[in-house]
Amino acid sequence: MMYCEEKNKSIFTDKKAKKIIKKALNVLGKKHLAFIAHANSFPSEEGKNTGFGNVNSNAAKNLMDYLSGIFTDIQLGPSGKTKSIDASPYTGTIFSNNPLFIDLEQLTTKQWNNILSVETYNKITQNNPNKDTNKTAYSYIFNMQEEALKEAYQNFIKSNNKDLKKKFEKYKEKNKFWLEKDSLYEALIIEHNNDYWPMWNSETDKSLFNPQNEEQKAQYSKRIAELKEKYKIVIDYYSFCQFVISIQNEHSREYAKSKGMKMIADRQVAFSDRDNWAYQAYFLKGWCLGCPPDYFSEDGQMWGFPVMDPEKMFNKDGSLGEGGILMKQLYKKMFTENPGGVRIDHMVGLIDPWVYVSGKKPKIEEGAGRLYSSPEHPVLSKYAIAKEEDLNLEVEADKEERILKLTHEQIKQYGAFVEKIVIAAAKEVGLNKDSIVCEDLGTLTYPVVSVMKEYDLQGMKLIQFVVPEKPEHPYRCKNITPRSWAMVGTHDNEPIRMWADQTINTEAGYLNGKNLAQDLMPDATDEEKEACAVRCSKDSPYLTERKFVELFACKAENIQIFFTDLFGLYEVYNRPGTSGDQNWSLRIPNNYEEVYCNNLKTGVALNLPLILKLAIEARGKEFVSKNHNIIKELESLI
């Protein structure tokens, strides 16, 4: 590869090459090319590895420089505060940011009045047990980051930086509606020596923001005032950490913007323990969100996440209730902080959620059902939008095909959260519905499909999960619609190369190859297509290449690439259903430029010039004839 044989030079470090790549993407109708990497997976500079990645470091800026000119967006993971025993970003807080994403090095500079000593920072980097690997050291940095930030806070209080302190006071006042609750929870963790509120020995402290009458309201207000006084420093310290990360995040957004890129946030379906405690008044008592039994789980998935109470979400006249106002505040904050938009995890959870009785399994026989689609249910019927005459009662309640029809008014009711909260929040900060990325993989009930169509929302197409036996499968190249986000895999899947290794020498390998030949070789003979199918069933690198060509040849206007697939890493970031420090730990190697070039030479990293050339050719002779000049330019990079 010419661009990696000269001093590890690649298309990512050559302005002319980037212009050619950009031109080819435009020819293929791609509006967005997003790089997927959760912030903790960002690399470090040599000698500056604290054990956790973040988007605010110099290393992150270097990576943005590297990706700029080709990638238009960076798809981050959820940014909420996580617990010491669980690294999953999908159980973090909904408002508070994760202090682990604070770049400690900045706090050692004049910009922050040197509030963190260089000695402390060096100690953390030198003692990081994973400093020489591309893995996070979650348990280690969770404790060490806390020590460093407490030192920084103490020095901040002692400092004479009046301007910064004035900004801090303004920040606390502006964000009081969520910061007061989140910081008070931190005080109660110390008060009860337990970070899980259901285990606290005070019923009052469990329900401080959920009074049942005026007497309790007065009692709880008094208790809140006592706690604020007793734990004044703890509460202020928590607020300080949120203040620091908000400033660093803002600077990072501005830097990304200067490079022609935007950040896309990730709104998880879950609420953290902290959120559950703070907003329990808005949740449906006795019910949890989960998944019904399926091929992968005989008893269903007991997520244990709380469910927003429909009667607290919307008033009878359709206006937002207290819960709805809270959710709109959340989305407005997310859209404001992430001008690239918001990816909504588990879209069905907003439109047609599967709920089960707390303490029981998410099975029909134990009372589970779809919150808005169960008119025959003894309890859930009061929330039903679908009517019994809309259902095929011979089909079980957990099946996608159960609802047969809906009126336009019913579709609008199912879509109330999307329209009145998500879209409305985006509009209020100057964004449109295209800033909403809908994770609609897996279950697609009729209400979900109808709402997505009604509001013309962009869903996802995961080509790694094509069912090759189904000619009209929506993830297959020829069936992918323009208004969608296409990708080979997400953070929950094996890298495409690993998938290909597992797929060859199976019937699925041949069937995938047959479909790819039909979709990507419009002018080929039957014999040539058969040869392609056979080769895909035996040749892993070739099958990988064909899947990448499928990704860029499809009509989707938006493409996402997970970092493992770009750099050719042969490791899994997350294995759903497992826990421990090994999960959510994979990072982009610090020497990613060298890794990319080396893996490109061996054919395992994403060779964009080659793939884009093949994608243009996959559109047929007429398309090739119109774009022969860009093909020649791409060939100069191969």
Would you give an account of this structure?
With 638 residues, this protein is α/β, with parallel strands linked by helices. It has three domains: 208 residues, no CATH class; 234 residues, TIM Barrel; 179 residues, no CATH class. Helices cover 45% and strands 9% of the residues. It has 27 helices and twelve strands. An eight-stranded parallel β-sheet has the order 9-6-3-2-1-12-11-10. The chain has a four-stranded antiparallel β-sheet with strand order 5-4-7-8. Strand 1, helix 3 and strand 2 form a beta-alpha-beta unit. Helix 2 runs antiparallel to helix 27, helix 20 crosses helix 21 and helix 25 packs antiparallel against helix 27. 47% of the residues are buried. The mean pLDDT is 96.
Principal-axes shape call: globular
Poorly predicted segments: none
Residues in helix, %:
40-55%
Rg over alpha carbons: 26 Å
Fraction in beta strands: 5-15%
Q: By helix and strand content, what is the structural category?
A: alpha/beta
What is the CA–CA distance across the termini?
6 Å
Q: Total helix count? A: 27
